[in-house]
Amino acid sequence: MTENAVPAAELYTDEFAVDPYPAFAKLRVDSPVCPVTSPRFDSYLITRYDDAKAALMDPRLSKDLYGPGQHFLRIFGPNSEGLNKNMLNSDPPEHSRLRQITSRAFAPRRLEALRPRIAEIVAGLLDRIVPDGHADLMRDFAIPLPMMVIGELLGIPDKDRQTVLEWTQVIRESGSSGRPPAEEKARVQEAQAWLHGYLTELVAAKRIRPGDDMVSMLVAACDEEGVLSERELVSTTFLLLFAGHQTTADFIGNATVALLTNPAQLDLLRATPDLLPQAIEELLRFDGPLPVASPRIATEEVEYQGVRIPEGSIVGVVINSANHDPAQFEDADRLDLCRERGPHLGFGHGVHYCLGVSLARMEAQIGIGELLRRLPGLALAVPPEELRRLPAASPFRGLIELPVRFTA
């Protein structure tokens, strides 16, 4: 680490949790490749658009956290090993093999057939809250919607989904409970162990009684085709479960807040519903749910913006900073739903481009479209600065609660 390294505690403040974009703007100008120190691990943050895009494609920045060096131990801890050996944390050719297998579940025809069911889930969730005139949109809508969808896709029995959701939320909300750090760590480890055990049992159940679902498809790839190991099978199931609902839920929450705090843009979208697909892209650019791409490891010394990043360093590509880079986006800090669809990095870039992008877009378009149609007078029930958010150092940008009111 260099002498100008920034302590994580100075960067990830309460103010940062509310609005990280001023800090990102400062980093882009003063330290576009910023070394950050923390008790868990040190890292380098890449914050400008052109550098971020290049880094996401740089083969010297490896995603293989389980190769030489076992970097996952520094980042996730030993209890995560059974859940994170998947395509997200691998390089080609292993990544290519795992992605090819998993991509079968996201075939366009299969996803399009799901559209009526997503609309049905959205309608059911809104039916429950419309009569009340108020709701916590995270608890009542944004979180259950993608969880119900991915639960059906994976073949998780309906009776288990609420319990699965509760354990995933322990991981998502880590650091926000107010528990002492040691107790919080133990709770997260308990959640990881429970989910690993549950998914292992789910895989075993699908072996006995397969269905038309993703897990059954992955079991067949493991048992019949021999192209997936047992560890990869369970870990890939976890990746699909967590990635399949976490980021979509946080995006719906962030997008709702962005619209409610930009009333002219909200009115435009209500008046022009055909603008919704374009609006989804701009909302994702404006305040995405994954501020920093999942960690990369420098397999050799690399240099960005004149800063030498030593071999073995952890590198974080700051997607949300790149998406606010004025060198790439005019008036980048302004929400503009009419902005021409540009090459934002909200879904990543390169070989690790989000596999579930079509499903995420479909859920967001149906969910946000119906939310605005069925909840007239939708408004925040508390000032924006009082919204409870995930901790500043969380890998996710999202809300714990989203209290709103509307006309019943």
From TrEMBL:
SUPFAM superfamilies from the UniProt entry: Cytochrome P450
InterPro entries: Cyt_P450 (IPR001128), Cyt_P450_B (IPR002397), Cyt_P450_CS (IPR017972), Cyt_P450_sf (IPR036396)
Pfam families: p450
Keywords: Heme, Iron, Metal-binding, Monooxygenase, Oxidoreductase
Top-rank lineage group of the source organism: Bacteria
Family classification: Belongs to the cytochrome P450 family.
Alphabetical list of PANTHER family matching this protein: CYTOCHROME P450 YJIB-RELATED, P450, PUTATIVE (EUROFUNG)-RELATED
Protein name: Cytochrome P450 hydroxylase
